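chain below, 339 aa
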Amino acid sequence: MSPTAPHRVLVTGGAGFIGVHTVNRLAAEGLEILVIDDGRHASGERLPPAVRLETVDLNGAGAAEIVVRFRPEAIIHLAAQGGVSRSVRDPAGDALVNVVATVALLRASVDAGCRRFIFASSGGAIYGRAPRLPTPENTTPAPLSPYGAAKLAAEGYLGMFARTFGLSTLALRYSNVYGPYQDGTGEAGVVAITCDRLLSGRPPEIRGDGQQTRDFVFVGDVADANWRALQASARGAINVGTGVATTVQTIVEELARIAAYQGAISFVDGRPGEVRDTALQTGRAAKLLNWSARTPVRDGLTQTFTSFRERAGRAPAPASRGPAAAEAREGHGSRAGSE
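prediction:
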């Protein structure tokens, strides 16, 4: 463990997709970890034996008391409502999870004497129709969805708590995170949804024309970025992505190839609030966190599909071939992560 790293770390959403990978990464460094998770989007993977788990809603009674009692040196806040479409249907509900719960956690972190606060934000959803790809952090935010607006509002509170209370805060603006343990039954996460459809024998499906692009970053690389952010003194916002824009159709076709899938592909309407193209500039992460994504997308997709197949306990049903996609999310209860 680095001598500059905190020893006691609280991870919200630590039982979820990005959370489990992050907790495993931190546990390997010998940290003392407490996970707070409401259990609604748990990944199903077991946490390391030494990790404590408190099952509680961050907006519920007692959450702040748990934080203060643990007295973490640092917090990684991954818990969130991560679906863009869901945020469009219920903006107030999205704000309750992604803004109000974050503010309550920030207040509790100050009361607990916490020094460092890492927030899982969203690159694509915050920037909206960015005038430049890959997009740098100094781009003026222009979210197209309540989800993106909520993440931006939460970042505003991070800045205020830094100025007013001296809390060291950093927003990591994730691109589209994918990998093992992601939920393939929800609305968000084109890789996970496609894996789930391929393994259940359903025809893949692309939302929109398939030519929309995303910056797909492997969850293991994101977990490493979270670890490095704990050790760094950087503040403000840092993009976490690959800098490479890949079409949804390309992703789905590669998964179909991996699955030996053959047949027709369905194209359905896209969803409101989604950004057309995203890719994040990552020079700031390289400079301030000494971090860059190391997993090529083909390798990451192979690892992801293999994990899904092993969890399903069966080989993929060969039926058809072609691209599929639901929605890509960049995004984040226990679901921090991807849009």
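Residues 314-339 have pLDDT under 50 and may be disordered. The chain has two domains: 8-177+217-240, 184-214+243-275+294-329.
thats it, cya
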